[in-house]
Amino acid sequence: MARYIAKRVGLALVTLVLLSMIVFAAAQLLPGDLGRSVLGRDASAEAVAEYNHAHGTDRSAVVQYLDWASGLPRGDFGTSLVPPEEPVWDVIRPALLNSLKLAVFAFVLVVPFGLLGGVLSGLRAGKALDRGITVVGLSLAVVPEFVTGLVLILVLSIWAGWLPVTAQWEPGAGVVSQIQHLTLPAIALTLVLFGYVARITRAGVVEALDADYTRTAFLKGLPRNTVIRRHVLRNALLPTIAVVATQVGYLLGGLVAIELLFNYRGIGLTTLEAAQLKDYTVLAAGVLIIGFTYVVVTLVADIVSALLNPRIRFEASE
Amino acid sequence: MDRETRRLVEEFRRTDASEIDNNLIDELVAGELDRQEFLRRAAVFGLGAGTIGLLLRYVGDEPAFGATLEPAKVGGTLRVGTVAYNSSLEPYALREAGSLGLAGIPGEYLTWTNNKLQVKPWLARSWKPNRDLTVWTFQLRRGVKFHNGKTMNADDVVASFRQYLNQKSSQILSALPPTMIDPSGVVKTGPYTVQFRLKAPNNAFPYLVSQTTYQAIIQPAAIAGKLDSWVPSGMIGTGPFRLKSQNKQRAELVRFNNYWGGKPPLDRVLVTFYTDPAPMVLALRAGQLDVVVQMSPQQSRAFKGNSRYRVYTVPVSSHNMFGMRVDREPFRDARVRRAVALTLNRPDIINRVLLGAGSLGDDSPFFKGFPSTDPSIQQRKQNLDLAKALLKAAGKEDLKFTITTHNQFDVPDYAAAVQAAGRQAGIDIDLNVMTYDDYYSAVGGGDYNSTTPWLNAPATITEYGARGVPNLYLTAAYMTNGVWNASKYANSEFDSQARTFLAAADIASQRKATKRMAGLLLRDTPVITAYFLAFTGAGSSRVRGYAADPISHIRVAKTSLA
Amino acid sequence: MSSVTVGAERSEASAARRERMRLLVRSPSFVIGASVILFWVVCAILGDRITPYDPRFDQTPEIGAAPSWQHLFGTDRLGRDVFSRVLAGSRDILLIAPLATLLATVAGTTLGLITGYFKGIADDTISRVVDALLAIPLILLAVTVVAALGSRSTWTVIIVIAAVFTPIVARTVRAAVLGEADLDYVEAARLRGERSPYVMFSEVLPNVMPPILVEATIRLGYAIFAVATLSFIGFGLQPPSPDWAVQIADNYQDLAFEWWTVLFPAMAIASLVVAVNLVSDSVQQVLER
After folding, report:
1. Fewer CB atoms near the end CB (10 Å): N or C, chain C?
2. Which residue stretches of B45-178 are H helix?
3. Closest C-alpha among C230, C243, C74, C69 to residue A144
4. Searching chain A, which residue's CA lies closest to the CA of residue B174?
């Protein structure tokens, strides 16, 4: 087991290094340049060149990469190349915090609803209710979140007047106000993820219903509800959460459209802007942090699955 | 004019008036200046209010901050929405609406240009030019406090201007270019007196130290003397609100109780920056904002005719230049360019694209609000038959071309309207609408000026911001080898008229030149200008004492919430 | 292998295919999904020949009119008929999404076959790169590639989405190939001395076709999703294209009072992705039976 984990951690590290290289290489290909983005169309060519030189973007990509990467082991992400030229971490941290708030809220909403839908679906597998939940869930999962978000804004905010249209609370607003402002985007995300969670849960329930221990429990004459609670749910829950956790990457970095729609400065929007401005250091750090979260969560999920499923362990230590 | 007034005026002309003043009065008497333009010029040349009042007997004067008709309710937070920015907030580096709007709340300027293009006293109380308009002397207001408690004096003004003048090289066209004044030309001549010694005469200098030169914020000398220390200091200025906190998404400002213009009614101003304007418009509509500094005319539709909101519009000289490369097919023949211009039904386009909030353009940069624009220039109208005939004569009946432009404000809608208009005369127009960044970037890492789409595509639509005078439009976009000459127009006759215009001190010769230039442009039509815009903002009707500023400044000293 | 058994296998295979088709057309979700897709395909092909107004050029006098008999979905701020624009708006997305999916499927299958078949260093390297790419959220990756390519023509969008989906397809195909590579028939072909490309494409590929098909239908749904999202955030198609997402991006500032300019294109996107999803779900069920 230790060998398996060591191997997976090693691979994850390689993935992260590759990721940072890919991001830096891609950033080199971006058109336009930093100085022009910052100084604007009216700036003279000399001023643009001077800005680029002062910020080191006229050096070769390899030198820039090594310079930037050398700080990483110390946890130093460098400085943003765009005014006010704060340390990258100061740019990323509030955005990450915002993203986390939204992600946690969406999780809190989607897990119970998804579980409920999945269990109902699994218990009535093949019936109309099952088909209904599956089709609706999967359909919502593929409708772009800005589409659902807009319909939600229209109905809940503009027509009904219940919720604010942007996810931006006043400075120093309390938890209640923050939750109020985050409700619409969180519902939009919940709708996207619901089908996914329900589907995994459904599979777990179907499998658990089929398993020997469940049959034994039924044969022992235990009441149906008790069997479902004790055996089916418990066994369906863990893999569901483990698999849902792999959605963290999406919840953190994939919400550009939602963040734009609700004017909410999360890590997605911050990274997108950095890409537009050619602010390499922020771009690379943003993508790396999203990637890091994704890789770590996937790793944990894999290890949990390995612990639950001896076959994977066996294959890995072969 | 009654006899007493005439006597006083004649006495003034004989004793006090300078040559410039007398020239001004001559123009007024000759009917070359209307009342508004006279006020404008009188203020520029520093005529006292008493004299102006004398000269225009019954004319009242508008105070710098707009009249407050009712006692303002004290307290409350004003929530303002504006566009996000990516450049620095340091005064010398201001260039985007979002950043200059924020910096202009704690920061203030020597003078104020109002929406009628008149200059008003602000941190400067009065000013006077010398005889040949090369030295301008400004008297500063006394008792103005900075947020850190220091009293503003001539040292602060000199240091602030020197900081800016030392940094000016970053912009191709700066409002105060090095050709006009050296840093050493800003001199303290008394504790509250500052002199600007220009390299050449300038008849409009007081404009150039107003908020239209938004970099010219007056900072304490100690901060201005040390580059890039204004933002770290907490943006210490003399404005009605001082900064409490700011980041790229939010800025919070609180009332400055020692404000020289009287205690501001509001407790707090909260500025929110929006990456995408649409959520900002929705937020105002949903009551999450009180004021949106600027929106497109189309976006203001949500608030028009709704008593819960107010739409602010200020006619300005900003316009979209639809340039056609005169050095390339299919536009080499001027008849082709004229034909394209003739397809446009301009009043309909203004109604459709700007919802009526704009004024007619005549394929020249001569905005009717400019005093130098000759009012007798004939307006071009839609004429599809003539357009078709011109195309036939030029052998271009199957004219087909692509307009390259960017996706911002009214531009895509305007482009779509041009496209639809062209079809009526059988012109097949394709649109290539780019993002703002792509449109203004060099292509493939090449040389900027020879690859960027906005200066190189065969047909382009580019937006130009508002200016108080047409000088920059002429030098940059129309004169041969102008830095932004996207149509590659080259006409020596036009150039010489433009030079005459730029050197002219009096309005009559300026108007003569504009008439000539407008005639040449109607004939050659290198650029189509269908309309001039109106700066548009909107707010809740609860907001009192707020007036939009077409530079995107946020003027809230007298603003209150009902 | 004698020709007789080959023929028998073939007819068996075609019988299985017929059976699958029969199951498919009997599935209500497939029928509904396919009909909706067909509807939009017809709209895309016929375009402005069937729309009551010209979706781009008819700037009618009614500006921002609410839905009525004359304008079923109302008009937008330039007086264009929203119904006509919604019908015409299917064209770009129905060109881009399938083409991108096709490209990604071909490229991803090739990549997946190679990595799954050869294993070893090539596999390890490519797999790591694929892992790294998959760690970046789809939209961020797409935006970076769009920006790098510079222009934003229809082809750029196609290539970007294909490029972003290729590693995902490759990973699925690789997993399927790994399951096949050790099977007897592959071993047999190798022993016969067949060359690797032949074994890969003629022996392994037909056997991994079902998962590839399923993956392709799923990707098609996500391709539509990706094109729409890219256009919405300004990195895809640009106005005045009547594309649905462009219409939404262009009009959602008016949501509070001209909701029809946003709601109908939104419904159109939703109907298309749901239809594709219904079809892909039914195909999946039939193939996995």
Report:
1. N
2. 49-55, 97-103, 154-167
3. C230
4. A42
CA distances from B547 to B120, B552, C65, C119, C205 (A): 15, 11, 31, 70, 70
B255: three-class secondary structure by DSSP: strand
CA distance B364 to B362: 5
Q: If 0-12 CB within 10 Å is exposed, 13-18 middle and 19+ buried, where does residue B401 land?
A: buried
Cα A251 from Cα A269, distance rounded (Å):
12
User: B558 to each of B79, B257, B313, C39, how far by Cα in Å?
Assistant: 15, 13, 19, 59
Write b or e for each residue in C90-129: b if 16 or more Cβ atoms lie within 10 A of its Cβ, otherwise e: bbbbbebbbbbbbbbbebbbbbbbbbbbeeeeebeebbbb
- Best residue in C157, C253, C254 for a mutation probing chain B (most B CBs within 10 Å): C253
CB B70 within 8 A of CB B280: no
Query: Do the Cβ atoms of C207 and C180 come closer than 8 Å?
Result: yes
* Of B209, B215, B211, B208, residue with least CA distance to B469: B208
Average model confidence (pLDDT) across chain A: 81
Q: Which two tokens stand for residue B55?
A: 């000269």
Contacts for B511 with CB less than 8 Å, ≥ 6 apart: B372, B373, B374
- Tokens, residue C220: 């098609």
Is the pTM higher than 0.90? The answer reads no
Q: How far apart are CA B432 and CA B454, in angstroms?
A: 12
Q: Which positions in chain B touch A43 (Cβ < 8 Å)?
A: 170-172
Q: What is the distance between the alpha carbons of residues A260 and A262, in angstroms, rounded to a whole number? A: 6
Residue B231's closest CA among C274, C40, A86? A86
Which residues in B427-473 belong to E strands, given as ranges?
Answer: 428-434, 459-464
Nearest Cα neighbor of B138 from B146, B151, B147, B129 is B129
Residues of B whose CB is below 8 A from A149 = none
Quote the longest CA-to-CA distance of chain A. 85
pLDDT digits (tens, 9 = 90+) for C34-80: 999 999 999 999 887 888 888 877 777 788 888 988 888 999 888 88
The pair of structure tokens assigned to B560 is: 């209150």
Q: What are phi and psi of B467, to 5 degrees?
A: -135, 160
Disruptive mutation site among B172, B290, B438 for chain A (greatest number of A CBs within 10 Å): B172
Amino acid at A311: R
Grouping H, G, I as helix, E, B as strand and the rest as coil, residue B23 is helix
Per-10-residue mean pLDDT for chain B, 562 residues long?
Answer: 64 69 64 65 70 54 41 87 90 89 96 84 92 91 94 96 79 72 92 93 84 92 92 95 91 95 93 89 90 90 87 91 94 94 94 88 91 84 93 92 89 91 92 83 78 92 86 89 91 93 80 93 95 93 89 91 88
Give the E-state strand segments of B299-394 in sequence order. 309-324, 358-360
Pair of tokens at residue B528: 């189509």
Alpha-carbon distance of A198 to A238, in angstroms, equals 13
- Pick C266's closest partner by Cβ from A16, A19, A147: A147
Residues whose CB falls within 8 Å of the CB of residue C118, separated by 6 or more in sequence, listed in order: C196
Report how many helices (DSSP H) and strands (DSSP E) chain C contains, helices first. 12, 0
Helix, strand, coil share of chain C (percent; to 5): 75, 0, 25
List subunits contacting chain C, requiring 3 or more Cβ pairs under 8 Å. A, B
Residues paired with B355 in a beta bridge:
none
CA distance C203 to B408: 54
From the CA of A269, how many Å to the nearest CA of chain B?
9
| pLDDT for res B192 | 95
**What span, in angstroms and rounded, lies between the C-alpha atoms of C162 and C100?**
5
> Which neighbouring-strand residues pair with B252?
B245, B270
